[in-house]
Design a protein that fits this description.
Phosphotransferase family protein; 3-stranded antiparallel β-sheet; Aminoglycoside 3'-phosphotransferase, Chain: A, domain 2; Kinase-like_dom_sf; 2 domains; 264 residues; alpha+beta; 42% helix; CcrZ_PhaseVar_Mediator; Aminoglycoside_PTrfase; 10 helices; Phosphorylase Kinase, domain 1
């Protein structure tokens, strides 16, 4: 990578799960470099959702290198997710026709609830289907969300507070788009609201988002959150992290008990 950048540039890892992100520095210049980043980075940059895209280059081996403006900012705290700016930016993403059109033209298929359910169950061993997990799966299967084709949007699919960056000018960005999906917007809304926004504040948050929290939407939030709880319980159990597994199991049981609130 340093050879590709040219003389005088120094690279250091920028962290992240893929290990393909770097900070490149030359004197006072600093840029963010990534190998094989999201192919619709240009659209995200043009809409101000991510820091400005500076250039894109393709290597001889087919890899694509992108350079973005370096943002001297900070990650949002969990307590800051309950604000109108977060709601507004997520609404902008979910309502972007340009993002959706590009994603679909790339051949991406919508992640419908049935596919999500099958992906979860296919990764599960019979030993892992204890009483609590089995009951949650039964609730999910009995109450599949019905989604018309025009309800699918581009979802970030990892709206953890660490992926929200505020720069020195108070501009807000949502980064790390490697796992983006065409899906029900509730796929993003469920983890954000359940994790960061007290239920008493949901109406106000949705007002900033531009949506009314009607029964069908609340049902879909519940459905996606329950399947996310199953995934997290199993993830932490497999890693031997008992405290975190227990935390997610507590939430799973609570959501399972709320199944009767929805007559779908």
């Amino acid at each position: 990578m340093e050879h590709f950048m040219g003389e005088g540039w120094h690279l250091r890892p920028a962290g992240g799960a893929t290990g393909e992100a770097y900070i490149a520095e030359q004197g006072k210049q600093k840029i963010f470099i990534k190998r094989n980043s999201s192919p619709f980075l240009a659209v995200l940059s043009a809409e101000g959702i991510v820091p400005k895209l500076l250039w894109t280059k393709r290597l001889e081996n087919g890899d694509v290198i992108t350079a973005q403006q370096w943002v001297s900012g900070r990650e949002l705290k969990g307590s800051e997710m309950n604000c109108s700016r977060v709601a507004g930016l997520l609404a902008k993403i979910h309502r972007s026709e340009e993002l959706l059109d590009m994603f679909m033209r790339m051949g991406n298929k919508p992640l419908d609830p049935g596919k999500l359910y099958r992906t979860t169950t296919d990764r599960m061993t019979e030993e892992e289907k204890d009483r609590d997990i089995s009951e949650a799966l039964r609730c999910l299967k009995e109450k599949f969300p019905a989604l018309p084709p025009d309800m699918y949007v581009v979802c970030h699919a990892d709206v953890h507070h660490n992926n929200w960056i505020e720069d020195e000018q108070k501009n807000l960005f949502l980064i790390d788009w490697d796992g983006a999906q065409v899906a029900d917007p509730a796929l993003d809304l469920a983890p954000l609201l359940y994790e960061y926004v007290p239920e008493k504040d949901w109406n106000q948050w949705f007002e900033s988002y531009g949506e009314k929290p009607e029964e069908n939407l609340l049902f879909r939030l519940w459905w996606y959150r329950l399947i996310q709880c199953i995934d997290n319980v199993l993830w932490f159990r497999r890693r031997g992290e008992k405290v975190e597994a227990a935390r997610w199991l507590t939430q799973l049981k609570k959501l399972t008990e709320e199944s009767g609130h929805f007559n779908k």
